[in-house]
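Board notes (copied after class):
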Amino acid sequence: MTELANFNSKLLPMAQQHDAMVVSTDCEPDDFLALKVVAKIQKERERLSNPLPLLIVVGEGKDVDKTSMMRDCAESLGLKCTVVQGKQSSRDYPAGMLTAFGPISFPSAAPTISDPARIVAAAECVETVRAFLANYQHPLYLMLKPCWELIGLDAALLAKTTLALYGGFNLRCMYEKGQTREWVAEFINKSFCRVVFYESYYATGSENSLSVTEAPHLFKAIATQHSRFWLGVQRCMDAWNDSNSLVQVKRVATTGKRWLETWAVESATATDDTWKRRKTDLENIEASVKILKANVEARNKQVVFADFGLLVALVNYGKAAVDEAQVIQCSISFNDDGRGKTSLNADPLGKVFAIKGLPRAKFVQAVEAALLE
């Protein structure tokens, strides 16, 4: 373990002063790769006698408790943490992922640590987060899912907290399923001590997946390193990609069926709203086809280039790539194009620092080094 696992002070000026970390995660495959980096950070801090207490909030998914799965994953990585179940959602979660890291799946794999993660009941989620933040001076909050558990907390707690987030889908969920776009933007812009904003579209470009073609060393490790963690990642990636492909096929089929039934009738009296709706439908079809194309071409050996990218940028493994990118001081808003894409608005007084234009090839090398060294 080296100083490469320390925080990048360009993005996190307080660096080693952060005295606790919360990871808020929906437990998708890219999140588990992010946790691999978190484990390196925690181990390096222990080496430096500067421990980093860790709380993991799991959430999203329909009628599914992800705490046992996260405890298994934490055990496979040697993470010392507390795990609490957060808010669920209406989205199905592949059942095969729930046991992916468990010792039952790998009977020959002994636990990495003898003290498993402590699990807290879902009913205590908000209070657990509140108490954890209150107990530390400079907590770092990693938002890898919608951060429902932060809404309504005391302003003073948030004001001392640094937020590092993946935007995109996570922010869309918040304003589509509970809050307005304006409220979410103001919450992110004004609530925290500092915000590091990462979104694939801005950080690494419109190609938002990472496949075996681009990162051969990573996918070789996933396929051949028969440790409990990497075997779990392989199972999660397969289950997730198969499930997600079927979801996209159903979405395209549903839109196609509706078009076949209504297109001719609607065209007879088409208005601007009709064509706007069709344009939004077409954009959604294109997004689904993009996901299907990535999965088929990579034969499931691909993962969305999202949450683990944020983690690599936050540590010195990604420093050289971040130094070549733009870090834009800004405030965020959401444009009105049907999908509410995030806009970065330059603001010399803004608390948000957005990563834009990472040199992709160099950053992929940093990702492989952070995950494999």
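Comment from the instructor: The chain is about 45% helix and 15% strand. The CA atoms of residues 252 and 285 lie 6 Å apart.
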